[in-house]
Amino acid sequence: MEVKQPQPPTDRVSSLQSLLATVVIAVFIITFVVQAFQIPSDSMEETLLVGDYLLVDKVRYGGGKASDLAMPYRPVQHKDIIVFKYPMDPRQYFVKRVVGVPGDRVRLLNRRVYVNGIPLEEPYVRYIGRVHDEFRDEFPQVDSPVPDLDAGWSLQMKKLVEDGQLIVPEGSYFVMGDNRDDSRDSRYWGFVPQENIVGRPLLIYWSVREASPDLPLSPTAGDRLFHFAYAITHLFQITRWNRAFRLVH
Questions:
Q1: In the chain, % of residues over pLDDT 90
Q2: pLDDT of residue 30
Q3: Most buried among 46, 117, 126, 192, using CB within 10 Å?
Q4: Contacts of 240 (CB under 8 A, 6+ apart)
Q5: Could you please report the per-residue DSSP string of 63-130?
Q6: Catalytic residue among 43, 183, 186, 207
Q7: 116 φ/ψ sector (left φ>0, alpha ψ -120 to 50, else beta)
Q8: Candidate list 96, 172, 183, 186, residue with the active-site label
Q9: Which residues face 204 on adjacent strands?
């Protein structure tokens, strides 16, 4: 039988200190540096897919304070993908692409996005249908009745449209999903305030396709348990290995 000498008290204290330091560093990173998110909808396809798990860089854009000048932050730019608190319900997090920054004049003509009169090159954009929608594809249309349009945003938008272009106010951003025909974005509910921006997606660390048939509208505990068990036992098959550890652009 192997006999081990008892660990000296000083060694145990040192190990405990190392463990606590590791925990503190991990908590700091999760709280201030990166945060994990899951993509729940298809509004950013094909850039981000339902089932992608992201690490989000929370320090990229800074906090808008004077102390930010000492850090390697940069302002939000056109075509950046951002994670933000949904202005209509800050408990929810959305991910979209920045189309307009403060001072920009934005419009859509036959689905094509123009910023300050110049068409954007958007190779990442996806269209899923050919049905033309006057509001969605010819934005802004301030006189068109739209079922999904937020009433408050409808009133605000009318005040910010000039010569058929929407003017992005200071401290706000106009965002859209890459899946343009199936994205409820700034066209429908308005701007993203600077303070709502959490960060930018940095890395897809895992991606999984639908593990089993959709849960019913009112799933029981047994339904959830079956869904979880299926995912665990079929982990290798349902993982999109070609998307794991992919940088987000």
A1: 59
A2: 46
A3: 192
A4: 49, 51, 207, 208, 209
A5: -SSGGGGGTT-----TT-EEEEE-TT-TTSEEEEEEEE-TT-EEEEETTEEEETTEEPP-TT-B----
A6: 43
A7: left
A8: 96
A9: 54, 246
Is 96 among the residues known to form the active site?
A: yes
For residue 190, give both structure tokens. Answer: 């308005």
Residue-wise DSSP of 130-185: ----HHHHS---TTS--TTS-HHHHHHHHHHEETTEEEPPTTEEEEE-SBGGG---
> How many angstroms separate the CA atoms of 120 and 114, rounded?
6
pTM recorded for the entire structure? 0.80
Known catalytic membership, residue 14: no
State the pLDDT at residue 213. 56
Q: Is the pLDDT of residue 67 over 50?
A: no
pLDDT of the residue at 146: 86
Domain 28-247 class, CATH top level: mainly beta
> In angstroms, how far is the first alpha carbon of the chain from the final one?
57
- Tens-digit pLDDT profile for residues 34-63: 788 999 899 999 999 999 999 999 887 865
User: Span 87-108, mean pLDDT?
Assistant: 97
Domains of the chain, residue spans: 28-247
| Contacts of residue 75, Cβ cutoff 8 Å, sequence gap at least 6 | 61, 101
Most confident range (mean pLDDT) of 57-66, 139-148, 239-248 is 239-248
Closest CA to 84 of 192, 205, 187: 192
